[in-house]
Amino acid sequence: MTRLTSELHQAIDAKAFAIRQLCLEFITCAGWGHIGGSFSEAELLASLYGGIMNVDPQNPSDPRRDMFVLSKAHASPALYAVLALSGFFPRERVFSYCRPDGLDGHTQRGQCPGIEYSGGSLGTGLSYATGLALALRLGDNFASRVYCLLGDGECNEGQIWEAAMSAAHYGLDNLIAIVDYNKVMAKGKLSDLMSVEPLSDKFASFGWTVLECDGHDVAEIQMIFHRAKYLEMKGRPTVVIAHTVKGRGVPEAEFNYHWHTHAPSIEQAGQFLAALNKTYGKQEKFSRPLASPKDGGLEAVIFGDLA
């Protein structure tokens, strides 16, 4: 892992902001998407792809790579954004999101470099990640790690706990699960719909090492991820419970389930970018003219630059 210098800290912060801005742009153009969960995971992804994970955009299939599984696959916009910003594929490709022959709303393995897992049904990602981690162990690859980002809401799923039991049984200390604990689901607060508390005690009782952090504090994230990757290789899988804010950076969207599955209008997108600039002390502008499906100019705006 690269030491967290002030320059690296600033670079990760900048990437987290860029993830949010880019998501805002292409979700607006698509007229659909998951802004809330994409914004809550921005620092986590920026940190993972900012020096924590051993990945190479020029060699994304390297058998010695670390692997990332987005179990909450509906929050694909942030993953597409960080992959594009990290050089896995051209940035303009994200504007094909939810378009014919474009990037799917849920991740699909093989659709573009860096996607390891085909998602859709919640609760399946940890089982898949457990299989990857076991395969690495059976293949005598003790250097690579598997990271699996879970939504807190999908921790309601029984399959999560079947996978948790299996990972502990096989002693998969090369598996690191991360819970994006933003406390909000599609229809309301997690605590009202189906509380998962005490979450840390649940994972511990299944035989996992449990770590917790502020999921928006880059220094804290880096420290916890370093510990999970290098210091907790003790025959137990590790889970990082990252306390985050749904819709982080835009007051209207924060902890607001109405922004779980919605795309802003062009006017709202401008307001959201202004809010992000204010929250993070930026003066960024949209990287391109935006057009929503209702504007009738979407095909030209998107595919004119991709042709």
Kindly summarize this structure in a few lines:
With 307 residues, the protein is α/β, with parallel strands linked by helices. Helices cover 42% and strands 11% of the residues. The chain has one domain: Rossmann fold (3-Layer(aba) Sandwich), CATH 3.40.50.
Features:
307 residues, alpha/beta, Rossmann fold, two-stranded antiparallel ribbon, 7 strands, 11% strand
CATH class: Alpha Beta
Question: What is the overall pLDDT average?
Answer: 93
- Named at the architecture level, the CATH assignment is 3-Layer(aba) Sandwich
Residues in helix, %:
40-55%
Structural class: alpha/beta
Q: For the report, how would you describe the main beta sheet?
A: 5 strands, parallel
Distance, first to last CA: 39 Å
How many DSSP helices?
Answer: 11
Overall description:
By secondary structure, the chain is of the alpha/beta class. The protein has one domain: Thiamin diphosphate (ThDP)-binding fold, Pyr/PP domains (Rossmann fold), CATH 3.40.50. Helix content is about 40%, strand content about 10%. It has 11 helices and 7 strands. Strands 1-2-3-7-6 form a 5-stranded parallel β-sheet, with helices on both faces. Strands 4-5 form a two-stranded antiparallel ribbon. A hairpin with a 2-residue loop joins strand 4 and strand 5. Helix 1 runs antiparallel to helix 10. The longest helix is centred in the first third of the chain and has 25 residues. The protein is globular and about 50 Å long. The C terminus is likely disordered.
